[in-house]
C-alpha cells in the first residue's frame, strides 16, 4: 500500500520510515524545502536513534516532496503529522492540520482515508471530517481516523515498531478495517474506538505520565526537608504492581514537546466546557516549582552567583535527543545568568543554545574546567564519567548539583573518601566533606 505523510517532523519521519521498514511505499511532504532537500540527499533534519540507518536501508520505498498534489494524487491513505503548537492562549494551534485537510479536499480525485496522528483536542478529527466533506464539490468520500502516537523521543523507532497498544478511532468500519490491516504485522493489542475517545485517550495518557513525575517530585520536596532518600521511597512505591516504577524518578522536572503542551491543551479544552481538572493544573505547577527549588539550592549554597563559573551538563530535555523544547536547562540557565553567573554548557547533541551568554563547549572536560559549580541537568549516560578523579580535580571547586539523581549516594560517599567533594541532589541528603573554611572559599 502506498501511504502519504504530511509533515516531516519527529512523528512524520518516524511514521514514514517505520512503515517503509514494513514494506510500504511512502511519500512524505513538507513545506520546508530545505528539510526536503536534506532528506532527498539521504540526511536527516532531526536526530533520532536508529532513524538514519533505517531511512537509508529503505531509501527505495521513501519519497520526499514539497508538492502537496503528488501525495494526494498517488495515495489513498494519508497521515496528517502536522504540528499542533500552543497559541498565545495556550490552546492547541490547529491551523496546520486544518490547512492540510482543506488541501486534501480541494485536490482529491478519489476517495481518501485521512489519518490524524497529530495530538489534537477531543472533537478535532470529527471537525476536520466535516470540513473536508462540506468543502468538496464532488461525490468523493473522506473518512477520518484518529491514530495517536505514543513515541518517546530518543526511542521513537523502537516504540513505533514495538508498541504497547495501537489505538484506532473512527466511526467508519471500512476505514477501521483498512488501518487495522495496515498494522497486521505488529504484535500489539488494537483498541477500536471513536475519534473523540482516541483523542482524549492520548491526552489522558500523557497527562497521567506527567502527573506521576510531578507526584514523585512533590514527595521529593518533602523528602528534602525531612532528610530522607527519595530514591528508596520511589523504589518502594514502584514495587507495588498497582503503581509500577516507571516515571517515578525524582528530578528537576519534565520538558519536551508533549507533556507541557498537552497539559495546557487538555486544561483549556476542559475549561471551554466548564469542567475543572485540578490535577492537571497542579501537575504543571509542581513541575515549574521543582525547577525553581533546584535553582534556589544552588543559589543558597553559593551565597551569591555573581561571576561564579557554572558548568551546565545536559541541555536537551532528555537524553538521546537534541530537542530543546521546554527543556529545564532553558529556565535554569536564564535564572543563573540573571544572577551574574558565567555559564559553560555541554550536551552531546546540542551545539546551539538559545540563552544569551551561555558558551557551549565541545566536551564535558572543557565545560567543567575551572568550574566553581557543576550542574547536571540531563542524564546522558556519558556523564557518568564526571566522577572520575581527574575530572573532579579539573574543577575549580569540587561542587556538584545533580538535577537528575544520576549518581547513587553510595558511590558519592565512596568518592568523598578519596577527595574533597560537595554533592547535592533532589530529595536526598547532601554529601559533603567540605570544611567551613572551604565552604567560605566557594
From TrEMBL:
Keyword Nucleus: no
Catalytic-site annotation from UniProt: 258 (nucleophile)
Classification of source organism: Bacteria, Bacillati, Bacillota, Bacilli, Bacillales
Stored InterPro entries: 6-PGluconate_DH-like_C_sf, NAD(P)-bd_dom_sf, UDP-Glc/GDP-Man, UDP-Glc/GDP-Man_DH_C, UDP-Glc/GDP-Man_DH_C_sf, UDP-Glc/GDP-Man_DH_dimer, UDP-Glc/GDP-Man_DH_N, UDPglc_DH_bac
Keyword terms of this UniProt record: NAD, Oxidoreductase
UniProt-listed SUPFAM superfamilies: 6-phosphogluconate dehydrogenase C-terminal domain-like, NAD(P)-binding Rossmann-fold domains, UDP-glucose/GDP-mannose dehydrogenase C-terminal domain
Family: Belongs to the UDP-glucose/GDP-mannose dehydrogenase family.
PANTHER family the record matches: UDP-GLUCOSE 6-DEHYDROGENASE TUAD
E.C. designation(s): 1.1.1.22
Recorded metabolic or biological pathway in which this protein acts: Nucleotide-sugar biosynthesis; UDP-alpha-D-glucuronate biosynthesis; UDP-alpha-D-glucuronate from UDP-alpha-D-glucose: step 1/1
GO biological process: polysaccharide biosynthetic process; UDP-glucuronate biosynthetic process
UniProt keyword annotation of NAD present: yes
Designated name of the protein: UDP-glucose 6-dehydrogenase
Pfam family of the protein (one): UDPG_MGDP_dh_N
Binding of substrate, residues: 202, 247-251, 255, 318
Domain annotation UDP-glucose/GDP-mannose dehydrogenase C-terminal: ranges: 311-409
Catalytic activity annotation: UDP-alpha-D-glucose + 2 NAD(+) + H2O = UDP-alpha-D-glucuronate + 2 NADH + 3 H(+)
Molecular function GO terms recorded: NAD binding; UDP-glucose 6-dehydrogenase activity
Residues binding NAD(+): 30, 35, 84, 119, 261, 325
Coiled coil: none
Amino acid at each position: 500500500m502506498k501511504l502519504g505523510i504530511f509533515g516531516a517532523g519527529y512523528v512524520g519521519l518516524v511514521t514514514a520510515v517505520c512503515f517503509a521498514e514494513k514494506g510500504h511505499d511512502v511519500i512524505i511532504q513538507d513545506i520546508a524545502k530545505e528539510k526536503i532537500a536534506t532528506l532527498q540527499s539521504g540526511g536527516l533534519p532531526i536526530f533520532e536513534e536508529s532513524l538514519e540507518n533505517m531511512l537509508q536501508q529503505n531509501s527505495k520505498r521513501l519519497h520526499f516532496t514539497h508538492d502537496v498534489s503528488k501525495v494526494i494524487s498517488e495515495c489513498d491513505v494519508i497521515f496528517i503529522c502536522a504540528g499542533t503548537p500552543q497559541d498565545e492562549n495556550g490552546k492547541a494551534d490547529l491551523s496546520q492540520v486544518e490547512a492540510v485537510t482543506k488541501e486534501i479536499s480541494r485536490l482529491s480525485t478519489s476517495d481518501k482515508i485521512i489519518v490524524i496522528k497529530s495530538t489534537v483536542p477531543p472533537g478535532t478529527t470529527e471537525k476536520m471530517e466535516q470540513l473536508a466533506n462540506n468543502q468538496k464539490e464532488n461525490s468523493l468520500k473522506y473518512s477520518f481516523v484518529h491514530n495517536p502516537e505514543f513515541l518517546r523521543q530518543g526511542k521513537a523507532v523502537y516504540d513505533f515498531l514495538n508498541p504497547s497498544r495501537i489505538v484506532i478511532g473512527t466511526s467508519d468500519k471500512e476505514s477501521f478495517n483498512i488501518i487495522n490491516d495496515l498494522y497486521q504485522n505488529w504484535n500489539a493489542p488494537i483498541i477500536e474506538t471513536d475519534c473523540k475517545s482516541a483523542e482524549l485517550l492520548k491526552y489522558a495518557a500523557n497527562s497521567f505520565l506527567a502527573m506521576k513525575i510531578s507526584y514523585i517530585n512533590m514527595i521529593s520536596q518533602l523528602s528534602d526537608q525531612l532528610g530522607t532518600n527519595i530514591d528508596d521511597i520511589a523504589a518502594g512505591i514502584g514495587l507495588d504492581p498497582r503503581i509500577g516504577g516507571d516515571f517515578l524518578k525524582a528530578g528537576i522536572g519534565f520538558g519536551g514537546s508533549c507533556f507541557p503542551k498537552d497539559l495546557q491543551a487538555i486544561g483549556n479544552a476542559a475549561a471551554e466546557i466548564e469542567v475543572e481538572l485540578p490535577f492537571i493544573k497542579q501537575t504543571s505547577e509542581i513541575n515549574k516549582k521543582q525547577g525553581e527549588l533546584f535553582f534556589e539550592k544552588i543559589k543558597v549554597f553559593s551565597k551569591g552567583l555573581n561571576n561564579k563559573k557554572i558548568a551546565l551538563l545536559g541541555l536537551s530535555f532528555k537524553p538521546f535527543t537534541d530537542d530543546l523544547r521546554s527543556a529545564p536547562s532553558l529556565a535554569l540557565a536564564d535564572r543563573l545568568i540573571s544572577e551574574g553567573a558565567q555559564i559553560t554548557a555541554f550536551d552531546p547533541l546540542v551545539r546551539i543554545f538559545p540563552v544569551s551568554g551561555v558558551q557551549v563547549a565541545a566536551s564535558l572536560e572543557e565545560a567543567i574546567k575551572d568550574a566553581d559549580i557543576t550542574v547536571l541537568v540531563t542524564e546522558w549516560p556519558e556523564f557518568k564519567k564526571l566522577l572520575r578523579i581527574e575530572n573532579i580535580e579539573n574543577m575549580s571547586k569540587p561542587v556538584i548539583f545533580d538535577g537528575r539523581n544520576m549518581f547513587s549516594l553510595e558511590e558519592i560517599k565512596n568518592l568523598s573518601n578519596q577527595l574533597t567533594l560537595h554533592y547535592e541532589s533532589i530529595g536526598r541528603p547532601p554529601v559533603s566533606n567540605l570544611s567551613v573554611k572551604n565552604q567560605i572559599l566557594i
